[in-house]
Amino acid sequence: MTNFRTAITANVLALAVVASAPALAVTLDELRERGAVRAAFANESPYGYVNEEGVLTGESPEVARVIFGRLGVENLDGILTEWASLLPGLNAGRWDMVAAGMFITPERCKEVAFSNPSYMMGQSFLVQAGNPHDLHSYADVANNDEVTLGVLAGAVERGYARDAGIPDSQVQELPDQTSMLAAVRSGRIDAAALTSVSIERMAQLGGDRVERAEPFDTPPEAIGYGGFAFRKADEALIEEFNVHLADFIGSEEHRELVRPFGFTEANLPGDVTAAELCQGS
């Protein structure tokens, strides 16, 4: 078995958005010669995060390790950054890909290129124990002007909130899951919005002061498909990546790999492609 190495690099300063042209394409031969692909993540469980042993894991890095291993790239070097810096840093050449479970959306497709999706996922809320405001949908927040909703800065949930008619004054952006959990526990926000599998993990970590809002009504437009982001110039690399991804997703090996992170057969993306998602299909 290939011995994979993960190097965790913390970016403590926010990355500036680079206005100049994206970095030149990276080729598969270059990655093989280097022996590693640099993958950015945002420490969001269960998509890409550092576990208690200090190892980068999660659905996205683990799938990326398998695919690049099949492509002859032995190591995956993880680079930790804030969510909002993932795509600017990619286009600035600070890393080769984003392995953070990022939803493929038309807006993001204007900035970067995506692999085909590796999963699909609905939404949920983290609320205080007992769900005191009876929040089971984005519409419930829109209908209660005393409620504040927390979202991850740069993530799709801000758009879902606007689409549901929630005014910006009722939405608070937070940098990461840790701050979202703390804000719900303290009552600084009344609910935190993320994908259902992320909220389930946060509820488990939060103890008896928080819970996952159940049931939860995910609108059709908020069912997302997550994939791996690359620079637009990396077409040849993405094509090779997608070939092996198609062979792997849905296999028994894949299902066993992602099951510990809460992913089931219900989260398989089917035949949906990045091209369709970039077009808003």
Assess the beta-strand content as a share of residues: 15-25%
State the distance separating the first and last CA atoms: 39 Å
Structural class: alpha/beta
From the alpha-carbon coordinates, what is the Rg to the nearest angstrom?
Answer: 18 Å
Report the helical percentage: 25-40%
Question: How many strand units?
Answer: 14
Give the integer mean of the pLDDT values: 92
Number of alpha- plus pi-helical segments: 11
Low-confidence stretches: 1-22
Based on Cα principal axes, name the global outline: globular
Main beta sheet: 7 strands, mixed
H/E series, N to C?
Answer: EHEEEHEHEHEEEHEHEHEHEEHHH
Structure description:
Residues 1-25 form the signal peptide. This is Ectoine/hydroxyectoine ABC transporter substrate-binding protein EhuB. InterPro entries: Ectoine_EhuB, Solute-binding_3/MltF_N. Keywords: Signal. Pfam families: SBP_bac_3. The protein is of the alpha/beta class and 281 residues long. Helix content is 31%, strand content 21%. The chain is built from 11 helices and 14 strands. The chain has helices at 28-34, 59-70, 86-91, 106-109, 138-142, 157-163, 177-186, 196-206, 235-248, 252-258, 274-278, and strands at residues 9-10, 36-41, 49-50, 56-57, 75-80, 97-103, 113-114, 119-121, 123-128, 149-152, 171-174, 191-195, 210-212, 224-230. The strands form 3 sheets. Strands 1, 2, 5, 6, 7, 8 and 14 form a 7-stranded mixed sheet that branches. Strand 10 (149-152), helix 6 (157-163) and strand 11 form a beta-alpha-beta unit. Helix 2 packs across helix 9 (235-248). It is globular and about 55 Å long. Residues 1-22 have low confidence and may be disordered.
